[in-house]
Amino acid sequence: MSLAASIVILAVFVLLARYVVRLMLDFVSHTRAIPGPLWSRLTNLWYLRQMVKGDFHNTNIKLHRQKVRIAPNYYSLSDPACLKTIYGLGTKYVKSSWYDAWNTEEDLTWTNLFSERDPKKHAANRRKVASMYSMTTLTSYEPFVDSCIGLFRRQLDQAGSSDSAVNLAHWVQCYAFDVIGYITFGERFGFLDNMLDVSNIIKNLDAAISAASYIGLFITLRSLIMKILRIMGLLGTDALADFAERNVKMGGPRKAIYGAETIGSYSPMLNKLLEAKKADPGRFTEWDIMANVISNVGAGSDTTAISLSAVFYFIYSNPKTLQKLRDELEVAGIDDIPRFSDTQKLPYFQAVLKECLRLHPGTGFPMFREVPEGGAVISGQFFPPKSNVGVNSWVIHRDKQIYGADADEFRPERWLHASEAEKALMERSYMPFVCTLLSFCEPSEMEEDRRPKKRARVSVACRQCRDRKTRCNGNHPSCKRCEQLAIPCDYDQPTGGGIARRSDTSGLLSRVKELESQLKSFARSPHASRRASTSADGALDEDSISLETYDRRNSTTLYSPTSNPEGGAAHHPVNTDGVDGMGIITLSDNATFSSYFGPSSNVALVYELTRVLKTLSGAPVNLVNPRAEGVEASNNQQNSLTSSYSLIPRDITVAGAQYLPPEPEATSLLHEYFDTIGLFFPCIYRDTFLAKYRDFRRNDSSHASRSWRALLFVMFAVMYQMRSFASPTDAEDKLSWEYLQRALNLAMPEAVINSDLETVQLLCLLTCYLQCSTNSAQTWSFHVLSVKAAMQIGLHSLETTQNLPLLQRELCKRTWFWCVVNDTLVSVYLGRPPVVPKSLISKNLPEDMSDIFPTSNQSRTVAMTSLAYYNAKIRLAMIISDILAQLYGDNMAANNSMGVFETLRSAFDLSWKLSEWRSSVPAQIRPGSVIAAPEIPRALPMQRFQTGLSLYFHAAQALIYRPVLLRFLQYKPDGTNATETLSLLKDSGFSTIKNCMYTCSGGVALAKTIVDEQFLPTSLWGAWWMTNFLVFNASMMHFGMLLISTQSSFSGLMATEDIDLILSDLKDASEVHRRLNRNNLIISRCRECLHNFLDLYKSFRDTTSPKGIGAWEDLTLSLQQPEFENTHGSQTATSSILPNPGQDFAWFDMEAFAGPMA
């Protein structure tokens, strides 16, 4: 076999392999279901063949549905809803690479208005000549057009007298060229003199347009193809450019003469271009002149000729239409060449023009645009980024759903007799791409020109427009938008009005200023070391606000602008209200607080246990353990575990991108957020947010809203809190609190008054974050604000969001459920009544969008499991809401009058409901399951999902069992119906206590797994405050069971092995606290409370049992271990921390963790 044959075979093989690979990739892509010819999936050659045949527009119509593939990565659409998305003003869909082929020069930096792809450059170039294409300027060229019309009519008269056939399409082309020549250069090219192709320019123009259309499909070969065509003499663009250049050179010296005397003093476009260059040569170059002239001669003449040919064809093919036009002209009294203003008063003539250009628009191909970064959903179909999408006007103009069943027929009356709604739909779908009098603008630019410079304001919008958040023109009895949609239009206020006067709002402004002054004087601090300037009117200046960072573990800072003698504003600490952000424990024995903590709170449980201990021991109970190492016994809370740090005083501008964490740390933190919290609460679309962040980082864009910037800073604050399973280091805590303050400076006080989706998401995230703070009032306040903000924009209403795009509608639903979940959990933690009424909790759970809106750097499996986790958590929150209502009376009163029998029955029913929920959770994330083969690797996100659900599942179980436990502790032998109560407690009640014991043991075991050193590289669960809550709550429940065993009425009820299991769990709980703690006040207080309770219990507990003595000795050794020392180097205690696989809790495979969290 020869070398040449081998090369040919190899080339054919490579080509076939390429097609096979492309076909395989296509069948797994998001666009695989889009119909189209088979060859269109493999190569651009099918599309090229249709172009060469010259009937692609007809083929496109025959193929078309709503979406059709015409080449690899090229899609033709027919949907009026996507027109504004793709071509609208300010769209992110830039022109496709196909437009590069329309440059007359090989250097792609030498572009014209049609070929320029950069929207900013296109807008800048268009502004240079915008005045030359304004309607006023275009109508001023009427004398040029009239002169050509007169000559054209004389040529028709001569042809008619000779009875010779006329190629009207060619004549119209000649007419168009001479009109262009007159308008552009001030003199005709001479086409109309003999109806001949002057300098073969028509032939060259046709070759240039055909070449550009074909080359655009193979743009990477553009330079090579142009060189070949130039050698062959087939590159029409060179001849077109030479023709234009010759006329520019000829027109320059004669710029004061400009043609025949019949034109008078009208100035052609070349004159305006030369004057613009003379006025500003730095801005207006020689190429600007050439580019506009070439575009006029080429694009202007061609589309004008096409449109005029279509008008002649349809008019003279329909005698009835011709007669109606003649009748209209006769009635209007027009017997000569009409003015442009006259034609605007001829409705039937205008309808005929529209109908002609509907059936025969000026372009036969879709005007392709590239899908922006991150991809997009268009007409219900996801298109990956860089996909080429476009609408072929030939196709959409024949859409029967838009233009009626007779859309293929010529019927101008459709534009006159249609209803307002039908006419509006037809107008929105009408895109002839006609370059009337050289105004070859893009649809978005035409829209811009038609838009008034400043819209009229209306004092009152109708209720429907307010709900849809659309513009209302204020017409009565029905506004324009409601008329178009054919829906009722209702106004909440009387029709009279106009714009609200200044005096109408002066009272509100004065009250706002008074509120500002009160806020500034409310917490005046002589210690404020940093100042923030105020504006002249006393309002805070967001770019000059400064802050002071304080130790969150000792005191927390709400947004509290304060005044000072110098007139500035500062932030100062607001002392803790005595209880942490989750209502776990009081932070000082002598803490006084007026906040309400109902029966579901952990504070209430600790108080009840304290009361029982005090009764048993007969001595005061102090929760502080003076012997615990690392904890000072001082009652002065200003002396904390660690001295309060302070930052070097400096001004911090909270709004700028320069105050973000440095790269690549910032991006890494955001990816960590979306790989953790973003999966637990999938309410923010990752790709959109990250794209906006990159733009903000690069441009420090002022377009980013305050709420979005605040949300960004809170994300950083949260992630610095969650970088490992333990509480943050001092450095991490300081950074976290700094970014939180920046967020609050941006968000407040606007978030109290105004609202949008980002504000709700911000407040929800703040609610989650502040659960690790030392101020429960903050957690509750921001949660209430989040619900208020959500209801303010109607997230609770399906009707409000039903008209939004799919992605936004789904994110609104998910964000509302975030509020619902937070409401249930915060109500339980703090013992408060729920804020969200149950009637507003929809049964329609969030839906999977991963197939339509895929997320980069995330598999669809993870996205679907994330949604399964979120929906499972929502359903669990609904069950917890039932628990709160049935067993705790919605925290409405501290004393629950429910009897023992009712309590046991409700606990049983709710346990059954909780068990059903657990069974409904997908197996891979089901809480409390035992994995049969833990050595099988499992993805880290799956283990995190299972961890999260297991935490909440154990907490919900404990919440059910707690009232039963309290019934044991509150039992009085001399009470009413004491015998029946005792019998119930010993029988059904004790089985519930046993279940409670195993539940608490499982919770401690889960916490042990989370803090195990083997999880250091991956951080299985970063929400250390949740781990602390779980283990402390389980410890308190366990301790309550120990107290039950000391009561004479229940002596002997608990076996020795039960006591030993409880003591072993308490030992493990203490070790979990130690490993969680990095000098954190909340965790230290929990560990102190546990140790002190056990010391008191030991003082009166009979420990004669050998097993009991051994257990107590082991526990004493554990309590004497020092607090966490900011390192995790020791592995000596690993064996005591590892969970027991035989227990019913989530087992997590350590070997599946390949490395640090991405």
UniProtKB/TrEMBL annotation:
GO terms classed as biological process: DNA-templated transcription; methylation; positive regulation of transcription from RNA polymerase II promoter by galactose
Protein's UniProt name: Pisatin demethylase
Polar residues composition bias: residue spans: 555-565
Cited InterPro entries: Cyt_P450 (IPR001128), Cyt_P450_sf (IPR036396), Fungal_SecMet_Regulators (IPR051127), XnlR_reg_dom (IPR007219), Zn2-C6_fun-type_DNA-bd_sf (IPR036864), Zn2Cys6_DnaBD (IPR001138)
KW Methyltransferase (keyword) present: yes
Stored Pfam families: Fungal_trans, p450, Zn_clus
PROSITE patterns: ZN2_CY6_FUNGAL_1 (PS00463), ZN2_CY6_FUNGAL_2 (PS50048)
Molecular function as annotated in GO: DNA-binding transcription factor activity, RNA polymerase II-specific; heme binding; iron ion binding; methyltransferase activity; monooxygenase activity; oxidoreductase activity, acting on paired donors, with incorporation or reduction of molecular oxygen; RNA polymerase II cis-regulatory region sequence-specific DNA binding; zinc ion binding
Transmembrane residue ranges: none
Region (Disordered): 520-571
Domain (Zn(2)-C6 fungal-type) ranges: 461-491
One CC-aspect GO term: nucleus
Entry-linked CDD domains: CYP57A1-like, fungal_TF_MHR, GAL4
Database matches in SMART domains: Fungal_trans, GAL4
Key words, A-Z: DNA-binding, Metal-binding, Methyltransferase, Nucleus, Transcription, Transcription regulation, Transferase
